[in-house]
Write a structure and sequence with these properties.
The chain is built from 16 helices and 18 strands. It is α/β, with parallel strands linked by helices. Strands 9, 10, 11, 12, 13, 14, 15, 16, 17 and 18 form a ten-stranded mixed β-sheet that branches.
Length: 466
């Protein structure tokens, strides 16, 4: 429990709350310098949502008040907070702040300059309070990818019409400042491709399956017990959470309206330990990989399990860590790696946005005015790629030849093939194809029952060049 809030007066009207003696002592000697720097009014935050991210933001503001004020050029202070349950113990001192039961009321308060939405959800109070904040002329900082993936264009138009901004660094890849990199550092680049591992829970499950040799269901249960899974686990393992993030990056990268509905989504639920082992044998790892690229056929957005070379940066990524790879015409390839979730990393991202607003930096929500973003024409066919195939074949003369014939007739050529020893009358066969379209492959797979030698459903996973 924090001691009662003390404040140090800075400048004319600025009071920086100081919650620990160490911080107070650090602040005292520089107080005069900061006083000279900080003649402007503080930036006042209303924070809705006091869970992992919200309490993390408050803790960071309380422990780093002086550092934040020095870097922002003015103090940043919390004036009001909101959550569902006022009585819940939260391990941060909320006594200096006004409490609002209704986040919409918080968003409209006169003493709130920036509404910080950390509740989550693509509708309900998150949407209502964000809209209310924008209507009341406030800037918004949010960690809510679901809200922006579904309503980003409408919210951005409304904010920009009023000269306000919505910042969402924490919504994509947690502590990795990828939104800043795309909207600012790489602003002069025509982006060729954005890809990455953007759901730490899925990466934890896949890497743990490999390291512990455990099946999917066992590791899923482990992740649940560790508290890694969202309340609706399908948001994680179904690829939806990562798909939300990819759609936001694609909007910035390609100047298109957010089009989450056009993201081709496939989760990790069908990945078997045999696939993890077989991929490893062939020099690959399986990742839930997001890829967005503008092709001659339109905007391709995919979030699906892919094989990537084990020795590539993406292949090396372990546990809950995220990685985003950006390829720009001028800059070449940039690789960003870091914690994709958790209190500290997300609070870091939220406060980066807040400090920008305190400095008076306001850039369009998706890097260019929302009114100029074009409609995303979705590519109906993904770019061709090699595929990994695993199937079980009966121990019959000519079985492999029959499979090869069906693949060949669909225009799918075999690059490599491996067959393991037979057990109980059938054998696992692994095939790596040359580049082909998913349509051609699906056509071939739909004809496999005709061969009379394939047992069960074949598994097909794209191999991504990274
Ligand atoms: P959380 O721990 O579940 O906290 C959610 C907070 O919102 C709680 O304080 C809850 O109140 C409050 N809340 C929920 N519904 C509300 C309502 N109807 N009215 C008022 N308050 C309400 O969630 P979180 O992990 O902090 O995530 C918050 C946001 O950050 C989400 O959009 C999430 O996707 C995003 N995000 C999270 C992480 C992460 O590592 N956790 C990383 C990146 C982005 P009570 O506490 O009273 O129940
Ligand atoms: N469920 C998300 C993840 C949390 O596992 O990455 C942050 O968005």
């Amino acid at each position: 429990m924090q001691p009662p809030c003390e404040t140090v007066r800075i400048g004319r009207a600025v009071r920086v709350p100081v919650h620990c003696e160490a911080a107070r002592q650090r602040l005292k000697p520089v107080g005069k310098l900061i006083t000279e720097l900080l003649m402007s009014a503080p930036l006042r935050l209303g924070i809705a949502g006091l869970g992992t991210v919200g309490t993390g933001v408050i803790r960071l503001i309380q422990t780093e008040a002086a550092l934040i004020a020095a870097r922002a050029g003015r103090a940043v202070e919390v004036t009001g907070v909101s959550a569902r349950d006022r009585k819940k113990a939260r391990d941060v001192d909320l006594s200096p702040y006004a409490w609002e039961d209704d986040p919409v009321t918080l968003a409209r308060r006169d003493d709130v300059d920036v509404f910080v939405e950390l509740m989550g959800g693509d509708a309900g109070p998150a949407k209502a309070a964000t809209e209310a904040a924008i209507a009341a002329g406030k800037d918004v900082v949010t960690a809510n990818k679901a809200l922006l993936a579904h309503h980003g264009q409408a919210l951005a138009l409304a904010a920009e019409a009023g000269g306000r901004s919505i910042r969402f660094e924490a919504a994509v890849a947690g502590g990795i400042p990828v939104i800043k990199v795309l909207t600012e550092g790489l602003a002069a680049n025509r982006i060729r491709r954005v890809m990455g591992v953007m759901n730490g829970t899925c990466n934890y499950i896949l890497t743990r399956m490999e390291s512990a040799g455990l099946p999917y269901d066992a590791v899923f249960e482990e992740a649940r017990k560790l508290g890694y899974l969202e309340a609706d686990p399908n948001l994680d393992v179904g690829g939806i959470d990562a798909g939300h993030k990819l759609s936001l990056l694609a909007a910035i990268a390609f100047g298109t309206k957010v089009s989450f509905d056009a993201v081709e989504l496939e989760g990790i639920g069908r990945i078997a330990i045999e696939d993890i082992r077989s991929a490893a044998d062939m020099g690959y790892r399986i990742k839930l990989l997001g890829v967005a690229q503008m092709t001659g056929r339109g905007l391709e957005q995919r979030m699906s399990p892919c094989l990537v070379p084990s020795d590539s940066p993406l292949g090396q990524l372990q546990g809950g860590t995220n990685m985003v790879v950006i390829e720009g015409e001028a800059v070449g390839q940039i690789v960003l790696r870091g914690a994709g979730a958790g209190e500290g990393p997300t609070a870091s991202a939220v406060m980066g946005d807040v400090i920008d607003l305190a400095r008076g930096i306001r850039i369009p929500v998706f890097g260019q005015p929302a009114a100029l973003l074009s409609d995303a024409v979705a590519a109906t066919v993904a770019a061709p790629a090699p595929f990994y195939l695993r199937m079980r074949l009966q121990d019959k003369p000519g079985a492999l030849a029959k499979v090869a014939t069906v693949l060949g007739e669909a225009g799918v050529s075999i690059d490599r093939m491996r067959q393991r020893a037979h057990d109980e009358g059938s054998a696992p066969v692994l095939i790596v194809t040359h580049r082909c379209t998913r349509d051609a492959l699906d056509h071939a797979l739909s004809r496999m029952p005709e061969t009379g030698v394939v047992v069960g459903d074949p598994v097909a996973i794209r191999i991504e060049a990274v």
